[in-house]
Amino acid sequence: MKTRVRAKVVGRVQGVGFRPTVYRYAMQFGLCGFVCNGPHGVTLEVEGDDGKVGAFFDCLTHEPPQQAVIADIQTEVLGTKGYRNFEVIESEQQGQATVHISPDLATCDDCLKDILGAKNRRCGYAFTNCTNCGPRFTIIRDVPYDRDKTSMAQFSMCERCEREYHNPLDRRFHAQPNACQHCGPRLQLRVADGTASDDADLAKTKELLRRGRIVAIKGIGGYHLACDAMSAESVARLRRRKHRPHKPFAVMFRNIAAVKQLCEVNEAEEAELLSAARPIVLLTRKLAGRRLAGGISPDTNTIGALLPYTPLHHLLLRDFDTLVMTSGNLTDEPIISDEVELPTLLGPIAEAALTHNRPIVHKCDDSVLRVVNGQRQFSRRARGYVPNPIRIAASGTPQLLAVGGELKNTFCLVRDGNAFLSQHIGDLKDYKTYDYFSSEIESWKQLMRIEPQVIAYDLHPGYLSTRFATLAPIPHKIGVQHHHAHIASVMAEHNLHDPVIGVALDGTGYGTDDTIWGGEFMVADRHDFERVAHFKQYRLPGSDKGVEEPWRMAVSVLTAEGLDEAATRKFPALKWGLVQRMIKTGFNSPLTSSAGRLFDAVAAILGLCDVTSYEAQAAIRLESIADPRVTDRYPFAVQTGNRPWMLDFGPTIRAILDQRRQGVAVGEISAKFHNTMAASVLHTCRFLRGQHDLNVVALSGGVFQNELLLRRTVEALQSRHFRVFTNTAVPLNDGGLALGQAVVAAERTKRTCV
């Protein structure tokens, strides 16, 4: 019997070679009909023998294109129509857009062969791509994903590219960025004096890099600043000019073999490095890795490694084993993405810029992650992953916007139960970043066809994201406590709905009692939470200044614990007396239970970091010197007389000072401190399990980016048979905050409606 089936396929099905795959399967099974893109995804009809139609859908469901993600296939059986062939037709333009946009995809093996093949017409062409790779999110202006709705609209394809584009059996069929050197984007080398090169731009760029120069290079989502990673002088000069004295630089390696020569790489890390997302992966440096300039990562023994992900990168790295590839921006400002902004880099930092004439629609930094306990752990989620959705609720959830926090900002839009977390925006204290945040929200709303009726925000009244929410013309506004949002983000990722023990350790989060929280234990669900325990509070002298200068927090802790003499000996030249007066009077010294500030204090007490040049530098140094062989810990106390309970680390601080006076190695002291933190989490969770009959623990917050702490904590909890969950799809730090805000707002809205 013959049958005709109409199907609507939703999910990530545009820009990933879905229609060519449908066409090939239709040809394979001798079916007729059509396929086209639409605002919701892909629409298709197939007509033919009943069994072959079934086989067609089996193949489409179980063997879709590699980068496709099918969320749903809705089918309808219709009467036969008598189609005579199978066609790929023009996109549907009517209807509400619900399509999932593809992230940018690293150069595939086939395109790599094209650009490196001497006899291929795209040999050496820096913008080669096909349906399996190339820019997607960073070039799209609107949906459906067609060329005229991307920044490739200005480039008219030549005759040969047109033939590829319209041939359903060609891997460049409807590859929207399809181009060649005759019709597509072109490179141009500019030097600091304003002149531009006429030809051989790539060769001249390589020569500049070989001579130790710094070059700004325009990529998919913005500019990188590049230099020779083996040159200590070049790296030092880049640090001076970028005003970035210590924060690590990323290193791009020629291939995976080059990475393995200099870094330890396990199977999971290799899979991340080679994935289509091509993130920066934090790896341990081998002894051979000392060939890299020491200034690349002065505070740790790790290297942020990534592999080439564009044809331009592959062409550059043919002549280098490694290049520094750090974000093209000034400290705390957004990544630069167009030529209007280029003077910020060209001259003040870079001697030259390798640019091109394909506009970048959406700025997008490289993603950064590490693998911990076999799981992905983001510190920055951006290129390669954005705008992949995260399912947080059932369909029918009101459209909403969550605006995130102040630092490491991301925002989140929700439609039909899918949360779309933005790329890394940055620190909103910078005006340019805030302006970018505001404009990108509007761009995403238009792109996703979302008009929020609910807006979620952090409780901190001073955050610019909170001020944005209060002024936004959105009727329903929902404030979400910072650490509840962290825990809710974990619950969303792992589809947890019942109450959990939430442990949120971070630097700063505004509490419901108007103090600064950061060492928090809560019993939480998606709707609400109870604060059941927290770290002991100390004064934060100078507020933000106390975050930037860990010695202040050390004085605060030592003073509060009655160890003034130790403070006097340790910080005689740092005006500790003035700080002590601030602490005792409370002047500009809010109370904080922050775990991050406790790490800062210990690092300063041990002489590792008195003043920071980037966020969490003191804690990073403290972790980097910890001896992993040490299993002992220090004493601590839990005060249970009042609710919430208080974890008191005064005994820990005293023991650290005693061992410091005895000459115990700093690496041993650091390890014992980390072990103490892990033990305190286990101890508290065991008490809460007994009181609340809960066995699921959700860990989140920026302090858990400390790999040693996270490993020891998870191991301790699992040894006592807790089920432990943490963030793997979004950052543990405030980059995941917007997702948690969205989850809480969705749940509260649902309950209000019910």
Description of the molecule:
By secondary structure, the protein is an alpha/beta fold. The chain folds into 4 domains: 87 residues, Alpha-Beta Plaits, CATH 3.30.70.100; 58 residues, no CATH class; 183 residues, DHBP synthase (Alpha-Beta Complex), CATH 3.90.870.40; 220 residues, Nucleotidyltransferase, domain 5 (2-Layer Sandwich). It is 32% helix and 22% strand. It contains 22 helices and 31 strands. Strands 6, 7, 8, 9, 10, 11, 12, 13, 14, 15 and 16 form an 11-stranded mixed β-sheet that branches. Strand 7 and strand 8 form a beta hairpin. Helix 17 packs across helix 18 and helix 19 runs antiparallel to helix 20. The two termini are 47 Å apart. The mean pLDDT is 94.
Total beta strand runs:
31
Low-confidence stretches: none
State the share of residues found in helices, binned by percent: 25-40%
* Helix-and-strand structural type: alpha/beta
Structure keywords:
754 residues, alpha/beta, DHBP synthase, eleven-stranded mixed sheet, seven-stranded mixed sheet
Brief synopsis:
The chain has 754 residues and is an alpha/beta fold.
